[in-house]
Automatic annotation (TrEMBL):
Protein family according to the UniProt entry: Belongs to the PPR family. P subfamily.
Domain PRORP intervals: 337-563
GO terms under cellular component: mitochondrion
Keywords for the protein's UniProt record, in alphabetical order: Hydrolase, Magnesium, Manganese, Metal-binding, Mitochondrion, Repeat, Transit peptide, tRNA processing, Zinc
EC supergroup of this enzyme: hydrolase
Cofactor(s) demanded: Mg(2+)
Localization terms from the record: Mitochondrion
Major localization listed first in the record, in broad terms: mitochondrion
Name of protein: ribonuclease P
Length: 570
């Protein structure tokens, strides 16, 4: 290993040549020296990740690629005796090579959280000359960053030594490498180091993820360093990383703790747009803010009513964005809304926030593109053509979901009851569109004479579409409901990976206004229609706030709301 010396700090010579300016930077980070004081190689993280040169991680011998068999080419791998290896033989050879065995054992340690065994395997591998690749190093860094206990400081130290060795070995880092290193820094209560590591990703062409920002953001918030937390937040926004409730909640708390009323106001609106309904922990932070003395001192005694009304109209209702209105002590109450959206505490009626028709059209287009990319293209195009011939509809029914609610087997009778109820409610007196997978109409209960007649009647009425084998019927019923801006009857909460692909704040707003849920009891079925108000954080024209809590899937459990009001001066 080549080392160059400047003062008492040792760094790999190739890194020193790459980043000569970082020597002065390191002297400002003297607190990090203690990390490596007992290490044979003293090196600060900033040395390791100075501005990279083009060939910093180029390995002329190609021995650090992710293939377990080093020194071979994918195009020219041959077995002993000159015979070309089959794909199965190649995989087996990679698994049984020392690098492959190490990967298997480290992955097992990762699943168990066994950092002691992981470090033992690392020491053994280096002793035996096993060449570690990116995956090996990332698993080791992850183990060191996740574990605590009595020897936590030693673990962090070993983690950074492994991180250092990865760079000395010229193994290229990826997002996971930087994120795990940032977690190590955060565990040492050094969010500044964690943030610097995130910022250095850019030099390697790596885009940070939301998880990358967690260590510095939560670290700064924990220390009450609000301005530094805002820097991390600004960096996230610059790179298009959208904060979720944990990040916004942490920013909200630190802003409230330092009495930054403007930031609290901004973050409440960010929660409104991206989270909509808050968990109990976040509601607790909001509640504490409204009960604080600083919140009582914050706000305008006089404001332009016309501007407030314009803001409400421009935003579609439910908020105005004109800042804190009113002054004085807040009255903070946990309460519920009645069926019409009237607050049980202050008597204010919540708004039903409009959806821009253009948003719906754009959402339908993006949904179609996703479906065409993930389902059989010809099948989905055939469905779109069918919709044009048979639509519009007042409601779309997720047949499989509704037929199995409170049922041991698929119940066509229950599904038919829903169809009849929707037909009676329909303004056009048209049957709803029932979506069923092919497997549901070709076997089992579908073979009974009564159910055969039922299916035939729906089909002849243009009210049944059968999705083909191999397709995902979720795409079909969701697209039809969005396309015709109609009701969607399903108890599917649409939270799985498929719906996360939609990646938009529009989807929960659309669901709230269009999803109908079914409840089944001894007295029969009941349809839970969309509420006549929006279940989202709302800011009223007089300055009061209403914050909904998240609930489970129990339709009978009333939702709790936080109501914050203060007297209006006439």
């Amino acid at each position: 290993m080549l080392l160059c010396r400047r003062s008492t700090i040792f760094v790999p010579s190739f890194i020193a040549k790459t980043s000569p300016n970082l020597f002065s930077y390191f002297t400002k980070k003297t607190h990090a020296l203690s990390l490596f004081k007992n290490s044979p190689i003293r090196c600060n993280y900033s040395y390791l990740f100075g501005k990279p040169t083009h060939d910093l991680f180029v390995n002329k011998k190609a021995k650090f690629c992710n293939l377990a068999i080093s020194g071979t080419s994918r195009r020219n791998e041959k077995a002993v005796g000159g015979n070309v290896m089959s794909l199965r033989e190649k995989k087996k050879a990679r698994r049984e090579a020392p690098e492959g065995v190490l990967k298997f054992k480290l992955d097992a340690c990762s699943k168990r959280g066994d950092v002691v065994e992981g470090l033992r395997l690392y020491d053994e591998a280096r002793k035996n000359g096993v060449e570690l690749n990116q995956h090996h190093y990332n698993v080791l860094l992850y183990l060191c960053s996740q574990n605590g206990g009595e020897n936590v400081s030693d673990l962090r130290k070993q983690g950074f030594e492994i991180f250092q060795q990865m760079i000395i070995d010229k193994v290229p880092p990826n997002e996971a490498t930087f994120t795990n290193a940032a977690r190590l820094a955060s565990a040492m209560e050094d969010p500044e180091m964690a943030f610097d590591l995130v910022k250095q990703m850019k030099g390697f062409g790596i885009l940070p993820k939301l998880r990358s920002y967690g260590p510095p953001l939560f670290g700064f918030c924990k220390k009450g360093m609000a301005d530094k937390a805002y820097e991390v937040d600004a960096h996230m926004i610059e790179y298009g990383v959208v904060a979720e409730e944990p990040e916004l909640s942490a920013l909200l708390k630190v802003s409230a703790d330092v009495n930054n009323a403007d930031k609290v106001y901004e973050l409440l609106h960010r929660l409104r747009t991206s989270v909509r309904q808050a968990t109990e922990s976040t509601v607790g932070i909001i509640e504490d803010w409204f009960k604080s003395k600083h919140a009582a001192k914050t706000g305008k005694e006089n404001w332009d009513v016309s501007k407030v009304k314009e803001g409400v109209a421009r935003g579609g209702g439910g908020w105005h964005g004109q800042g804190w209105l009113g002054c004085g002590q807040w009255r903070v109450v946990r309460t519920q809304m009645d069926k019409e959206g009237v607050c049980g505490s202050c008597g204010e009626r919540l708004a039903c926030i409009d959806i821009d028709p253009r948003e719906t059209e754009n959402f339908a287009i993006s949904l179609s593109k996703l479906a065409l990319g993930r389902d059989v293209k010809a099948d989905f195009i055939r469905f779109q053509d069918w919709l044009q011939r048979h639509g519009p509809f007042d409601a779309v029914v997720d047949g499989a979901n509704l037929s199995l609610i409170n049922q041991q087997t698929f119940s066509f009778s229950q599904l038919n009851s829903v169809v009849h109820r929707l037909h009676d409610m329909s303004p056009s007196k048209k049957l709803p569109l029932v979506i069923l997978h092919k497997s549901r109409v070709t076997g089992g209960p579908a073979q009974s004479p009564y159910n055969k007649k039922l299916l035939e009647r729906w089909k002849n009425s243009g009210a049944l579409y059968v999705t083909p084998a191999g397709s995902n019927d979720d795409w079909y019923w969701l697209y039809a409901a969005v396309c015709y801006k109609c009701l969607l009857v399903t108890n599917d909460e649409m939270r799985d990976h498929l719906f996360q692909l939609l990646g938009t704040s529009f989807f929960p707003r659309w669901k709230e206004k269009h999803q109908v849920r079914l409840s089944v009891s001894r007295s029969g079925i009941a349809l839970q229609m969309p509420p006549p108000y929006s279940i989202v954080i709302q800011e009223s024209e007089n300055g009061s706030w209403h914050v909904p809590t998240t609930t489970n899937d129990d339709l009978e459990t009333p939702r709790q709301w936080l109501c914050a009001t203060r007297p209006i001066k006439s």
